[in-house]
Design brief:
Blueprint (H helix, E strand, L loop, with lengths): L3 H15 L14 H15 L5 H8 L3 H14 L4 H19 L1
Helix pairs in contact: 2-3, 2-4, 3-4
């Protein structure tokens, strides 16, 4: 067990390094990365039909138009599914075959 003197010196060192609280970021000092990742998750849930636009807007504090723009950006960033690629290729092949006849 630490002595009171050692504990007091440790806190003094922490306060010199981190400020008056002795903590690096404080209780609520987390960066914006968490907020951005939570917004991205909520947008994804909206795109998957789990949450409505209004629910995402209320949860994030963003205007509905901003939610729509973020949802569009998310949708446009998704890679093509195998089914979409197959359908596009088949359509192209059909178009080529139709052009030959």
């Amino acid at each position: 067990m630490q002595s009171e003197d050692a504990r007091a010196r440790a806190w003094e060192t922490r306060r010199e390094k981190y400020g008056s609280t002795g903590h690096a970021r404080g209780a609520y000092g987390h960066g914006g990365d968490h907020v951005a990742s939570m917004q991205a998750l909520l947008i994804r849930l909206h795109e998957e039909g789990v949450l409505s636009e209004g629910q995402v807007s209320k949860a994030t504090g963003l205007h509905r138009i901003t939610v729509r723009k973020l949802a569009d950006e998310y949708r446009n960033s998704l890679p093509e599914t195998k089914e979409d690629v197959r359908a596009r290729v088949l359509a192209l092949q059909k178009g080529i075959c139709d052009a030959d006849h």
